Amino acid sequence: MIAPEGIEEFPKEIYSVNKTDKPNALLIRSQDMHKTHFGTSVLAIARAGAGVNNIPLLEASSNGTVVFNTPGSNANAVKELIIAMLILATRPVFSSIQWAKKLNGADVSLQTEQGKNHFAGTELNKKTIGIIGLGSVGSRVARATADLGMRVIGYDPYISVEHAWRLSSDIPRARNLSELLQKSDYVTIHIPYTEDNQDLIATNELSEMKDGAILLNYSRWGIVNEQAVIDALDSHKIAQYITDFSSERVINHANTIVTPHIGGTTLEAEINGAIMAAQTLRKYLETGNIVNSVNFPTVEMAFDSNFRITLIHQNVPNMVGKITTILARYNINIDNMINRSREKIAYTMIDTDIITEEVFFDLKTELGNIPEVIRVREIRKN
Ligand SMILES: NC(=O)c1ccc[n+]([C@@H]2O[C@H](COP(=O)([O-])OP(=O)(O)OC[C@H]3O[C@@H](n4cnc5c(N)ncnc54)[C@H](O)[C@@H]3O)[C@@H](O)[C@H]2O)c1
Ligand SMILES: O=C(O)CC[C@@H](O)C(=O)O
């Protein structure tokens, strides 16, 4: 469900929500879009949350559909749950509560005192936690676990400058994944599911972990190889597997704790994500500006003129030349212009004075006939 606070970001006078079979934009959470054909009406998809493996990004790019996520919106929620799961892995909280619930009689207090020796746990303090991925979630987990007195070691060869700044300089980084696995009593994974990250933790990696270590996966199914982790649990190579992603085999194993994909499920995170996704969508629909996209470059230009033309096109040489040649033929004076690219896709925005609907119809047809152009859009200033 999308939090109503996000829907309220779309004023009723301007937007119809859930009322058309040809939507201009989709606001989603984890729903699987791989089998959904989103037509050419869909200019953008915003995912309230971090992971975008539920969206076919290549198809979206070739359709000229910009995909957004809401980085960091639920990171605190995941961090807090990780702390809870670390404690649940380490102290017999569940079993002691179940035991205590069965007690009765006037001497319950005495019985608890006598029985508590069966429920000794260990402490997180001075244990080593290895954090794979130091982005929005991983960097927060690093700080929180360091505050609990844990020895923290991180691994993230692709860390962004923003996240690197956020990370305390006291958090040592492993030179490679093996070093992290070999040193850690707990290993927690906070990376996106991508083709490269599929089975990142498989038989070899599990064999490198310390005997009796505990593995947490609150990132995605598929990053940890299921058969390999079951084998590692069966052979007691690792002591526990704690995850937000279930399968029958994992859920029924004695040494797993499975939560039902609730890492980002807090009131606060749902509101953050919905509002952020809605605001990002509105910005794109109303100005063409792109922030927090996972398949398009970041492109922002102040919208000071009356009319904006946006073009999504392939990232090949001479596109700006081809576009401006056509504009010159229409005698259009360019007030401002920006062009940015990301991998195979490029985006150009051109600001000019008002263009009538008839003229724009012809212009749009000509621009759209450039073979590398995927989508042409007009935005009129209100
Ligand atoms: N359980 C949940 O409900 C829940 C909630 C939020 C996020 N997530 C999952 O957690 C993932 C991380 O979330 P985030 O907000 O921290 O994302 P993020 O993009 O801020 O951080 C991900 C980090 O992983 C790093 N990374 C990528 N591949 C790596 C690899 N092979 N080894 C080491 N580091 C690698 C990146 O450089 C980046 O710094 C999301 O992609 C999503 O799948 C799950
Ligand atoms: O929508 C959700 O609740 C899941 C969110 C989480 O998996 C994410 O990737 O942000």
Helix content class: 25-40%
Query: What kind of assembly state do the chains in view correspond to?
Result: single chain
Round the Cα radius of gyration to an integer and report it. 26 Å
Give the helices and strands as they follow along the chain: HEEHEHHHEHEHHEHEHEHEHEHEEHE
Q: If strands are numbered along the chain, what order do they take across the biggest sheet?
A: 5-4-6-7-8-9
CATH topology of the largest domain: Rossmann fold
EC number: 1.1.1.399, 1.1.1.95
Keywords: NAD, Oxidoreductase
Function: Catalyzes the reversible oxidation of 3-phospho-D-glycerate to 3-phosphonooxypyruvate, the first step of the phosphorylated L-serine biosynthesis pathway. Also catalyzes the reversible oxidation of 2-hydroxyglutarate to 2-oxoglutarate.
Pathway: Amino-acid biosynthesis; L-serine biosynthesis; L-serine from 3-phospho-D-glycerate: step 1/3
